Amino acid sequence: MQRAPHHRSRSRRRGLAATLGVGALTVSLLGGANSASAGSPPPEPGATTLSLPSPPGGKNVRVLVFHGSATAESPLVNAGIQAIETIGLTGPTSGRFATEATDDASVFTDARQLGKYNAVVFLTGGGDVLDPEQEAGLEQYMEAGGGFVGVHDAARTEPYSDWFSGLIGARPTGAPSSVQRAVIEVGDRQHPATKSLPLQWKRPDKWFNWAVNPSGSVHTVARLKETSYKPVAGPNGWDKPISWCRDYDGGRSFYTGMGGTVDSFSETDFRDHLRGALAWTSRISRADCKATIDANYTAERVTQPNQPGQNDQIGEPHGLVTAPDGRVFYIGRGGADNTKPVVKDWNDPNVGKGNGEVHVFDPKTKKVSLAGALSVFGNKGGGDELTKNEEGLLGIELDPAFQSNGWVYLHYTPHSQINRETRIGDRRVSRFTFNFTTNKLNLASEKVLLNWPVQIHSCCHSGGGMAWDSKGNLYIATGDNNSSGFSGGYSGNNPQPNYKGVSFADARRTAGNTNNLNGKILRIKPTRSGSYTIPEGNLFTGEEPDEGGGKTRGEIYVMGVRNPARISVDKKTDTLYAGWVGPDAGSPSTTWGPAKYDTFAAITKAGNHGWPYCMGNNQPYRDRGLADPSKPLGWYNCAAPKNESPNNDGLVNLPPVTPNTIWYSPQGGGPDFPRDASGLPSYKLEEQKLLMPWLKGGGQATMNGPVYRFDAASTSATKWPSYWDGKWFVGDFYDGEQPRHAVLTDPKTVGKGGIPVHAESLKKIIPVGNNGIRNLMDWRFAPDGSLYVLDYGRGFFTSDSRSALWHITYKGGEATPSADQLARKAAQ
Q1: Nearest CA-CA partner of 561 in 524, 521, 522
Q2: Chain centroid offset of residue 379 CA
Q3: Rounded to whole angstroms, how far apart are CA atoms 591 and 570?
Q4: 388: number of Cβ within 10 Å
Q5: For residues 648 and 641, is the Cβ–Cβ distance under 8 A?
Q6: Partners of residue 601 on adjacent β-strands
Q7: Distance CA 427, CA 478 (A)
Q8: Under a CB-based contact definition with an 8 Å cutoff, are residues 636 and 652 in contact?
Q9: Distance (Å, whole) CA 333 – CA 277
């Protein structure tokens, strides 16, 4: 190691006073320490071409460690220098770079000297350490393609410089916390600085608060879980970046708020973190530091408002799917525009009649066509539980071989099949054939795969989502077909209300019933003939001998769901993802149980997900009896629930409840309570702990999204980057504090009730607000890697001027540095 002479500058920043003529940096930086690499741009006119010797020991990269604010050699600086030297000698970077350290800021005004270094590390203790000329030299170094790594206190360096603030990315509010052990959520699983780290990294350090949250202006690779330690005054909340990077002013900048203790630099994981940061900034390896910067995404509305009195562009938005050729198919549930009359009188044969419309957007022509419309029951409009209705055209999927056979599957309630006397409808999943030339569905080609009865006397919860797995199995999500009222907003288990003998307020008749297809996620395997078979591994065979037989349906894969309007399957893992809306209670009750929990679940095997017996992480409700439903009976046993409802025609003894992945209430995400010796939560609001502080409810309605899978072979210029690969998109119909996030789950606990280990907001990429996507209804990635989103609009049970299909594309470009600017390994 070489140490430069001691020199410190105390001049106060008053702006750049001089501009240095150091164009020589460009060539030396792009060529590593030997020469300009192949493909590098020629030097600017008048620049000096440098021919520098190789670093000591045949290494081809130099790293400068600057510690200019230290008044003397400090243990922290020495530990940092020693760690960086060791990094250059061990592991994947072994033999790649030599380290030099200095506290002499004049190095930044010596173009030939500074041009030797692929990366500069700031181990400063804060303060104004560079005079205007020196900062200008550092600025031009970055413009020439240099690399910068700031460690901990470097965020307090050059406090008067806006340019240095941009280089760092964020400034602390003051001194850090005392040394405390905390949890770091490592969200970037690809960057060399984080890819080898645990998903949840626990370590001690001194922790800053940030004056301005840098999320969206930098690329965050790791976040600090603020609830895992005691922050100093003015905490930032759940979104607290701790390490980030960005391409800045022509170069590469990486900052970590860690490294505030001597012991940090002896930690294996922290050294690996620094090693990856140095590898990227010194051009030993490439990385994408653009993926979460908001400005790199464009959100464009691609449909126009409907013509007056028509649904020529869009119906009442309810679901979408993308075809292999890029066309987008999206459906309207059945509501007309708000100028059309709604028939609510059951004596009228047209009661609830509406059009379930299928529109197609072609991205090549930017045109929309109406592919077809089904006559559906589901246009009764708004009102109370006994007036409004959520039936209609509920779901759409395309056959895995759609491009060759043109098969489209629709999940809907035909108006022609309703019984107005008993107020029972016929829900079905049918296959239709699409004509690629005319962009029309052949409605006469219908083949009904599956149908079952639904009560239509009272609203709500129709479900509707569909998805395929990699084995050609079709998943069909159905709601509990149950009224939200009559239970005070807690478990939907009131056995009394009925219409002509059919209960409409007891979800034990539907979601909790092993012999009913409502409140389920079904799994079938369609055949070419238009029928289906039942795959192995469903929850029931349909031939269970228990309790007399004939009390199960083999199509059931998941029971105990309330209103799963959106489901998706990650075909890489065949994990099923679903979300459903909770009941209406605004707060927990020591008498009845948990508050309204909207729910997301990552499902890896067949199971019972609880409703109406248990919610969240197996928090039970109280049972009710027929004699007096207002009087609570015993608490449900989530490990061995029983369906003792008089409306049950299925098994009494049910499968154990599988805990869910995400749940949230008006108070926040993941409410949890202390439990007594029997495992019963206290349900006292003042004792509540929020396990997922990154989300909150209020008005809430889950809208499950996809898991993104990056296609490296795709040549699309608008595909989302590989950073998002494997992340699960979870959202809410509303756009306040409700979720619109990408989350990571732990493979060790996914499907077993393990909560997400990392979450990040998408609210600026998928914009919220009146001029954005305010009411998210569905979202799917297209084959080209771009994202389509349906905005429901601003009026329930109608289509209106805000109903729209949006397209969200990425324009950040490739990882940096470019392949032709990577530092070449020295000859062995």
Answers
A1: 521
A2: 33
A3: 39
A4: 19
A5: no
A6: 578
A7: 10
A8: no
A9: 50
Q: Token pair of 504, please? A: 């409409």
Residue 366, beta-bridge partner list: none
Dihedral in degrees, nearest 10, Cα atoms 285, 286, 291, 295: 120
**Cα–Cα distance measured from residue 556 to residue 31, given in angstroms and rounded to the nearest whole number:** 62
DSSP state of 613: T
How far is Cα 517 from Cα 552, in angstroms, rounded to an integer? 10
Neighbours of 445 (CB within 10 A): 16
What domains sit in the chain, N to C, each tagged with a CATH number?
Answer: 2-175+242-288 (3.40.50), 303-810 (2.120.10.30)
Enclosing H/E stretch for 82: helix 75-89
pLDDT tier, 261 (very low <50, low <70, confident <90, very high otherwise)? very high
Q: Does this model's pTM top 0.90? A: yes
The two tokens of residue 608 are 């019972």
Specify the pairing of strand 251-256 against strand 147-151.
parallel
The tokens of 597 are what? 């929990």
Contact 737, 763 (CB under 8 A): no
Q: Reduced to 3 states, what is the DSSP secondary structure of residue 28?
A: helix
User: Using CA atoms, how far apart are residues 755 and 614, in angstroms rounded to an integer?
Assistant: 17
Strands 147-151 and 97-102: unpaired
* 771 contacts: CB under 8 Å, gap ≥ 6: none
Joined together, the tokens standing for residue 501 give 């003998």
Enter the tokens of residue 396. Answer: 């759409």
CB atoms within 10 A of CB 132: 17
Lowest mean pLDDT among 29-33, 59-63, 82-86: 29-33
In three-state secondary structure terms, 143 is helix
Q: Over the stretch 399-442, which tens digit does the pLDDT of each residue have?
A: 999 999 999 999 999 999 999 999 999 999 999 999 999 999 99
Q: In angstroms, rounded to a whole number, what is the distance separating the alpha carbons of residues 65 and 760?
A: 33
269 phi, psi to nearest 5 deg: -65, -40
Return phi, psi of residue 689, to 5°.
Answer: -120, 135
Structure tokens, 559: 């029971």
**Which of 8-22, 417-431, 688-702, 791-805 is the least confident region?**
8-22
Q: Give, in order, the Cα–Cα distances in Å from 811 to each of 294, 302, 423.
A: 10, 18, 52
Structure-token pair, residue 650 = 């299925």
pLDDT tens track for 60-80: 899 999 998 744 458 999 999
Tokens matching residue 579: 């979300």
- Classify each residue of 274-304 as buried b or exposed e, where b means 16 or more C-beta atoms within 10 Å of its C-beta: bbbbbbbbbbbbbbbbbbbbeebbebebbbe
E strand residue ranges, 85-179: 97-102, 119-122, 147-151
User: What is the DSSP secondary structure assignment for residue 801, as one 8-state letter?
Assistant: T
DSSP state, residue 91? G
Inter-residue contact 273 to 257 (CB < 8 Å): no
Give helix 75-89 / helix 268-281 axis angle, nearest 10°: 70
Residue 17, CA atoms < 13 Å, CB-side half-sphere: 10
- Distance of alpha carbon 627 from alpha carbon 500, whole angstroms: 19
The label of the residue with tokens 């009026």 reads 795
- Alpha-carbon distance 82 to 487, whole Å? 66
Say which amino acid occupies 765: I
- Average pLDDT of 695-716? 95
Annotate 337-347 with b (16+ C-beta within 10 A) or e (fewer). beeeebbbeee
Q: What is the rounded CA–CA span in Å between residue 532 and residue 555?
A: 10
* CA dihedral for 546, 549, 551, 552, sign (positive or negative): positive
Query: Could you give phi then psi for residue 472, rounded to 5 degrees?
Result: 85, 20
Tokens standing for residue 387: 């007036």
The set of residues, in sequence order, having a beta carbon less than 8 Å from that of 536 and lying 6+ positions away, is none
Could you tell me which of 721, 574, 602 has the C-alpha nearest to residue 190? Answer: 721
SS3 at position 223? strand
> What secondary structure letter does DSSP report for 295?
G
